[in-house]
Specification:
By secondary structure, the chain is an all-alpha fold. Helix content is 71%, strand content 3%. A two-stranded antiparallel sheet has the order 1-2. The mean pLDDT is 90.
Length: 291
């Protein structure tokens, strides 16, 4: 029983970061209807920024968080203005092809600049653990889960308590009606995209003391984020949050009982079964930006 509890808690800690990476994707799709296959590459960029601050300036990722997030928000804004704004009305197939090309471009730029070597951020706390009774929790993973939970709560407050959040929910429900009420669609789309990229950037920063960074690290997390979002209910932000936790727990149990080689197979199998039984996703009936 103690082992099962340990595996469950470990899965929740991982799932919290998966949720953070995925809610940004759900927010972008729910508000702007953009399919962003380059989502994971911004996680990779954030990890490289965290590593660069640590390697060249001696600043650990947690201390460089404000600058990192500011850079990611800037990257999101530039991407939207230069690329995404031009394909807002395009078919999803066009959006997929363009963002897939953007993904490969960012991967190759990272390969050219940083080479294919694995880069790591080795903090004093990297191998530190917290002993809570029979539970042993990795300190960086616990911090990542706590920050991810706070960021998710901040997103919920933003969507439910602010005018900008209400505008996003209105656009997600009916863009034409929102525009008739005086809401600028492009401004809201831009805000949603910047917030989504900033959130996945935060996830990358939190993962930097745990995972090595290399040019293709974002590809795996991008696939995982799409699975989480579809499992949770496409444009449902709460669904993405729940889906990330579910995937984290499933991955943890699969690794414990079957071995690490079967972790991906386990959540892909869950993905197939869930969609076969409930195509609209876990929270499909509440799909949207409900706060």
């Amino acid at each position: 029983m103690e082992s099962v509890t340990q595996v469950f808690v470990s899965g929740l800690l991982s799932g919290g970061v998966y949720s953070l990476a995925s809610v940004g994707l759900a927010l972008i799709f729910g508000v702007a209807g953009l399919v962003n296959f380059a989502h994971g590459e911004y996680l990779m960029l954030s990890m490289y920024v965290a590593w660069a601050f640590y390697e060249f300036m001696g600043i650990n990722p947690y201390m460089s968080m404000p600058l990192n997030l500011l850079l990611m928000a800037g990257a999101g804004f530039l991407t939207f203005k230069l690329i995404m704004e031009r394909i807002l009305e395009s078919d999803h197939s066009i959006q997929m092809l363009i963002t897939l090309a953007l993904s490969m471009t960012l991967q190759n730029l990272a390969l050219m600049v940083a080479k294919a070597d694995y880069r790591t951020v080795r903090l004093e706390m990297t191998n530190h653990v917290i002993n809570a009774g029979f539970l042993v929790v990795s300190t960086p993973r616990a911090i990542a889960f706590l920050v991810a939970a706070l960021a998710s709560a901040a997103l919920w407050l933003f969507l439910s308590k602010t005018y900008a959040g209400a505008a996003m929910r209105a656009v997600a429900q009916n863009g034409k009606a929102a525009e008739l009420m005086g809401i600028s669609l492009k401004r809201v789309y831009c805000q949603a995209f910047v917030i989504g990229i900033t959130l996945v950037g935060l996830a990358g920063l939190l993962l930097s003391p745990v995972y090595p960074v290399y040019p293709l690290v974002g590809a795996g997390f991008s696939t995982l984020a799409f699975i989480v979002v579809v499992l949770g209910g496409l444009s449902s932000v709460p669904g993405a949050a729940v889906g990330g936790l579910v995937i984290g727990v499933v991955e943890s149990f699969a690794g414990y009982f079957a071995g690490p080689a079967y972790q991906q197979a386990a959540y892909f199998l869950l993905f197939i079964v869930a969609l076969a039984c409930r195509p609209e996703g876990i929270m499909g009936a509440r799909a949207g930006l409900e706060a």
